Amino acid sequence: MPSALKRPGQISEATAERLLQAAAKEFNEQGFGGTDTNRIARRAGFAPQTFYRWFQDKVEIFIRTYERWQREEFDALGTLLAENASDVRVARAIVAHHKAYLVFRRSLRQLSVENEVVRAARARSRLGQVAYVKSLSPNVARDDASIAAMLLQTERLADALAEGEFHDMGLNKKAGEDALARLIHNLLTPE
To answer: How far does the chain reach from its first CA to its final CA, in angstroms?
Structure first.
C-alpha cells in the first residue's frame, strides 16, 4: 500500500511498481545492508525523493518485496497444482524460486531475527501460508500449528537446497528434494 505521504494524482501506480521491481533487484544483488533507498530510486529511473512519496523507509519496501515474492510463489504453486504436477516437480519449483532470490532470502532470514517489524511481517506471512495450504486442501484435518511446523520444515529445506548445502556436505541433493516432495505431499494430503 502506498505511504500516507502520497497525494492523489501526484505519482502513478506505475511508479510504485517500478520502485518495487528495482528494490527486488537491489535486495537480491546487494542484500538489505548493501542497498539504500537512493539506489532503489535511481535504478527505477527516479530522483531519490520519489522513493519517499511511496514508501516510508527501506524496511517497508523490503516487506513489500517479501509479500511480492510470496505471491509469486503462491502463483507458481497454484499453477503446478492445477496441472496435477508431481510432488517432486512442485518441490523443484519451490527450490528454484528460493534460488532465484537467494541473496534476498538471506537478508530475510537475518532481518527476521534482528528487526521486529520484519519479524512481525514474516509471522503474518507465515499465517497467510497456513491459510493458503488450508484453502488448497480443505479436507486436511491438521491444526494451524501442525501446518506451520510442516511449512517451516519445507521452507528451511528449500533454502538449504537453494543454497547448495547438500553439495557442501558432499551429499546428493536428490535425497533433499525427495524429502521436500514428501513434506509437500503430507501438507496437502489428509491424515
So the answer is: 39
Single-letter residue type at 106: R
Alpha carbon of 58 to those of 26, 34, 158, 168: distances in Å?
Answer: 11, 11, 26, 33
Would residue 84 be called left, alpha or beta, if left means φ above 0 and alpha means ψ between -120 and 50 degrees?
A: left
- Alpha-carbon gap, residue 3 to 6, rounded angstroms: 6
Class of domain 13-57: mainly alpha
Q: What is the pLDDT of residues 75-125, one digit of tens each?
A: 999 899 999 999 999 999 999 999 999 999 999 999 999 999 999 999 999
pTM to 2 decimal places: 0.87
Structural domain spans, the chain: 13-57, 59-188
